[in-house]
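hey so u asked for the seq, here:
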Amino acid sequence: MNFYSIRTLAIRLGLVALMVLAYRWYDWPGVLGALGGVVMWILVEFTRMVRVLQRAAARPVGYVDSAVMFNAGLRLGMPLTLVLSKSRALGQTVSEAGQQPEIFVWTDSGQVQVRCVFQDGKLSSWALERPPEDGQADAP
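ran it, structure tokens below
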């Protein structure tokens, strides 16, 4: 179990506890108030996701400023939306559409690539791939 799945579970349990406590302290008006707060939180998260996708759509597909720095910020189990916010660009799709796992590649100006593999929307593995040096291209 990784950090992001524990976080998701904690959020769900916290929401259930909030509803139970709101009912217990303030009866049905408390539940409606808590529900209003939850809806506002969902709208803020939705707005955040749309903003991330708008920023990513405004840049070239598969391009990242520094592949090494992008690689250093990746963690196992990160959701795709968080990876998109770190790269600030949509990844170049390598895998077939709708097939699991999904594979995306980001490349910087030095042709250094970061290949990310997502299983069910979560980062399962990634690799930094550097281009061969001029002297090493001919070596066996």
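The chain is about 50% helix and 15% strand. The two ends are 42 Å apart (CA to CA).
lmk if thats what u needed
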